[in-house]
Fold:
Amino acid sequence: MSSQDASSTPNPSHPAESTPASLPRLGMAAPLFEAVTTHGKIRLEDFRGSWLVLFSHPADFTPVCTTEFIAFAGIASELRRRGVELLGLSIDSPTSHIAWALNIKEKFGIEIPFPIIADSNKEVATLYGMLSPGESKTETSRCVFVIDPDGIVRAMIYYPLTTGRNTDEILRLIDALQTTDKHKVATPANWKPGEKAIVPPPTTLEEAEARLRSGLECADWYFCKRAL
Amino acid sequence: MACIGSQGGLTESAHKMLSSLDQPSTAEDVAARTSLPLFRVRAGLREMMEANLVEMEQSLYRLTESGRSALQS
Structure:
């Protein structure tokens, strides 16, 4: 594959192209892109209808990133069961990604089942604000973007170069977001599936008084939980 | 490319997708028949449209003559 093939190009139909300084924000449409990956050219729109975990790593053939890729591969089937696809990214070349994936398979016996964007010209990384020049001018930070089936950014996580991510937390985050969507509740600190969720606080006095008579498990009118 | 190999032949996943197009089908139908992820099917069908192996009308994909020939070769 030529170096030209390795480029990632922003989708011309997306407003991010005309406002490059605008980074993703929660609740806003995820910036569209078309990028070269280890599975061929892929557009963000190809994931429409599925949840997507788009994550960046600093560089191929580095130890922390290798542990992360093994961990992401480890949750891939659990994510797929939840209707979630994985998409990796770094500014390495497609050849490097392929060699690294083969190396992980050879040395650790782990197959990388998800595509990895070869963002050699940093276009997707720039669109998503994955570069932290204060940390590194040549590597993407450890970012995670959770994008819902409608293409809306629902969560973002940024970790520094030195700290590998916790994939259990990413699974928990997906469970929490999907639970919120399904049951119209919020989830408390350290919530896990099966535990009670928070009922959104009342917004009127009438509703607050009714809430206390509602039979929900309430510490006070604004703090009620219910089983799902 | 994901569907056309570096030596010009169909990749395994492309062969699967083309073989599943014995009747006009949506990307979702192809994904169900091939057990490939939907994102991969969408990207693959787009690539095969560019290569004139597949055409699409009203969200239904069908083989072109070139697509039929590629399957038989």
Notes: Chain B has a mean pLDDT of 91.
